[in-house]
Amino acid sequence: MSDKKQQDGLEMNQEIEFKMQGVPMLIVRDMVIMPGANVHFDIQRDFSVKAVSEALEKNEIMFVTMAKKPVEDGKASYDHVYSVGTLVRVKQILKLQKGLIRVMFQGLKRAELVDFHFVDEYYRAEFVPLEDDKEEMTVQEETAAIRSLRDVLRQCEKRKIIQNPVTSEALHHVDNLELLIDLIAESVNVQVLSKQSLLETISVRKRVEKLLQILINEISICDIRAELGEKLKDCVNKNQREYVLREQMKVIRKELGVDNVDDEENQYRQLLEEANPPEEVREKLEKEISRFSSLSYSSSESAVLRNYIETLLEYPWNKESIDNNQLKDAIEKLEQDHYGLTKVKERIVDYLAVRSLSGRKDAPILCLVGPPGTGKTSIAKSIAAAMHKEYARIALGGVRDEAEIRGHRKTYIGAMPGRVVSTISKTGVKNPLILLDEIDKTSSDYKGDVASALLEVLDGEQNVKFMDHYFEVPVDLSGVLFVATANDIAGIPDALRDRMEMIEVNSYTENEKFQIAKNYLVDKQLQKNGLTKRQFKITDGAMLKLIRSYTKEAGVRTLERNINLLMQKTARGIVTETFKSVTINEKKLQEFLGVEKYSNDERGLQDAVGVVHGLAWTRVGGDTLCVEANILDGKGGLTLTGNLGDVMKESAQIALSFIRTLPEIKKLPEDFFEKHIIHLHVPEGATPKDGPSAGITMSLAIYSALTNKAVKGNVAMTGEITLKGIVLPIGGLKEKLLAAKNAGMKQVFVPEQNRKNIAEIDSEIIDGMEIIFVSEMNEVIEQAIAKRKIVLKV
Asked: What is the pLDDT of residues 159-197, one digit of tens each?
């Protein structure tokens, strides 16, 4: 075989000398021809048939290379094909049906494509022959490489990687290393890209290494497939064996008339007696257990019924915890865990008092509404502990599938009960406390409306017989104490809101934050960070500065994070032996946390023209809102900027309309508003703003800009305005007053109709501020304009 290759090589070299002008070229898809191999395949494309016919007719060699991408007639370019291919000789042509031609090629030598052209309806290629580079391999190295290849070849034969035994036997008699590599690569079914890589490798040493790596990888894949096949076979045999034995056992029991005490049917009936469910549930379970006993063990319906029966038997139909009716114990527990939250605590104590007198077991449905970080979720845990109830939480944020609440029909694949009954099953009692967290963040889609599904759950008159789609029997939820939490009451549908008792959890005052941090957060973080009270201390002054200068929130989450950060830095200092303990004072606070994030110097409380401080309510608490107004030359009109919503834009139009009716404004030239633009801006344009409560704020800003009169800088206000200048009431008064207090305001204008709400606000918030109740816009103008001769015009 080696001598024949040398002879073909001499003939080929002679042809190369006389045919450097080009030889016929064949572009193939997903195929590589190795030198020394005899390969046959079918061709049909016209330019391929033409090239083969030309080569056979003129007894020319051909250049064969693989395409990188599909090639159209006459449109192939150098980038479409691999540059390294094989010089071949056409040995035989056989014409088949439908224009197919079967061609046998003999691979001769590697060659590199220089250029090619489409001439006479086929491709002609110019090439450079590639010589094998043995890198001065010794005879011993060649012999070792040949033996290694033969050893791996034997392993391939055992695993039938090479299917043809004749080919395998012939390979063992090849003594030429280069030829052996090429023939093995042609015989083994390897990936075409790996084959192309072998063709492009000129170094014989590297070619041997690549081929060995390819063959060893194929052997590993074959072994893994064989192992998986054995495992699958064993699994099938085991299942068949178990099925036959189980059927034989049934026949034997039937012939002997002996019942098996371990039979699943008997186990289920025993569990049914222990569960002692309501009569309707018992009848349903007995019917399903009887059906289950008549089914084949391996049937799909048997598996569905088994899951259904076990799920219903696991539900605590008559198991309940004994609630704590001792009011003193409950009050002490609630006070121990939380500071403030008086309304929530009073409502729970009232419920316990009524229950102890009447013996009623139905529970109220509470909804805690307030900004994030105010303790809504944690108070639910405390309520459960105070009442000796099991606690469970259902997160409703982002839930949009009705089946999450009501469950799926058991006939569906992967069906399961809804979250409510599943949670009760996990607690093990039928009267736990379930927290419905973030109930205002549910949504709906084509799968149903979650809020509508919750109507039955949270209705005290209907949840006595709540129907879960999976259970198919009524479930009594009247003993469950549902506590929901929400940040914004507007996100709860009216029908659902009507079924819950709303309790506002308002923003914390500075004193409340201080007490919570000193009495709760510090101890919690000490335990979490592994520190003792001797190792970490913080002064009262540092704590107040931490609250004032490093946090700006309704709750205490950021405050707790900052305390945690202080302790982490303390822990690092103790571990690195920088110090043994630390006392955080105001100086150390800045050293550990960096510069202050919120400074009093940035509040800008000086008197100014066209600048008024308003008050706003947000989901995270109250905030101050600065409204600016300027009068510019132009063609008239009102320009609004600051990312304002539609309601706020309408309030600005109403404010301008009212201001233009004032006698003082009517004294302006008749064409004043046709020649001037009123520009109203609310800073922090990236934050969306909306709502009607900034009406009097925008009215005063426009009035100040038109009359060039300064507004007091330490004054804030809130209230909706009508076209007649009447000031209407607003909501979120506590949060707004707290924001004004934190901003350093001395006077706050509040609608007269909100006077009744002041009684519910802690004196700590109101102290140091003068609350001025107004019913008309003229009162605001009269008292908010600064009495100064020299003003700062903005």
From this structure: 777 767 777 777 877 888 888 888 888 888 888 888 888
Q: Give the three-state DSSP class for 767.
A: coil
Asked about 48 being catalytic, the answer comes back as no
Least confident of 36-45, 245-254, 631-640: 245-254
Cα–Cα dist 336/381, whole Å: 12
Instruction: Kindly list the distances between the CA atom of residue 733 and the CA atoms of 267, 690, 763, 777, in Å, as whole numbers in the listed order.
Output: 62, 16, 14, 19
Q: For residue 673, how far is the Cα from the chain centroid?
A: 53
Q: Residue 517's Cα: distance from chain center in Å? A: 32
Question: Dihedral sign, CA of 396, 401, 402, 405?
Answer: negative
Other residues' Cβ atoms within 10 Å of the Cβ of residue 764: 13
List of E strands, 422-507: 433-437, 444-445, 448-449, 466-467, 474-475, 481-486, 501-504
Burial of 586 (0-12, 13-18, 19+ CB in 10 A): middle
Q: Beta strand 727-728 with 720-721: parallel, antiparallel or unpaired?
A: antiparallel
CB 80 within 8 A of CB 42: no
List Cβ neighbours of 721 (8 Å cut-off, separation of 6 or more): 651, 654, 655, 658, 695, 696, 699, 727, 728, 777
Q: For residue 575, what are its two tokens?
A: 């571990």
Nearest to 793 by CA among 631, 675, 640, 624: 631
Contact 316, 430 (CB under 8 A): yes
Pick the catalytic residue from 333, 389, 545, 736. 736
The confidence score (pLDDT) of residue 2 equals 43
Q: Tell which residue, 61, 105, 58, 69, has the closest CA to residue 87.
A: 61
Phi, psi of 679 (to 5 degrees): -105, 120
CB-neighbour burial class of residue 161 (10 A; exposed 0-12, middle 13-18, buried 19+): buried
Q: How many CB atoms lie within 10 A of CB 461?
A: 9
- Spatial contact of 89 and 15, defined as CB atoms under 8 Å apart: no
Ramachandran angles phi, psi of 104, nearest 5°: -105, 130
pTM for the model stands at 0.58
Which tens digit of pLDDT belongs to each residue from 549-590?
A: 888 887 888 899 999 999 999 999 999 988 889 999 988 888
Beta bridge partners of 584: 538
Q: Is residue 533 flagged as an active site residue?
A: no
Q: Is the dihedral of CA 139, 144, 145, 146 positive or negative?
A: positive
Q: Catalytic: which of 549, 693, 699, 704?
A: 693
Is residue 754 within 8 A of residue 571, CB to CB? The reply is no
- Cα 725 to its chain centre, rounded Å, is 49
**Both structure tokens of 299:** 């049937």
345-374 in b/e form (b: 16+ CB < 10 A) is: bebbbebbeebeeeeeebbebbbbbbbbbb
Strand partners, 199: none
176: closest CA among 128, 139, 131? 139
Find out whether 188 and 223 touch, Cβ atoms under 8 Å. no
Angle at 493 between CA 487 and CA 495, to 5 degrees: 130
Instruction: Give the separation between CA 589 and CA 196, rounded to whole angstroms.
Output: 68
| N-term to C-term CA, the chain | 100
Q: Say what the alpha-carbon torsion angle 537, 543, 549, 552 is, to the nearest 10 degrees.
A: 120
Give the separation between CA 344 and CA 351, rounded to whole angstroms. Answer: 11
- 503 φ/ψ angles, rounded to the nearest 5 degrees: -130, 120
Q: In this structure, are residues 682 and 625 in contact, taking their beta carbons and an 8 Å threshold?
A: yes
**pLDDT tens digits for 728-750?**
999 888 888 888 888 888 999 99
The two counts, helices (H) then strands (E), for the chain are 30, 28
Q: What is the DSSP string of 696-719?
A: HHHHHHHHHHHHT-EEPTTEEE--
Report how far residue 494's alpha carbon sits from residue 89's, in angstroms, rounded to the nearest whole number. Answer: 86
Four-CA torsion 166, 169, 173, 179, nearest 10 degrees: 70
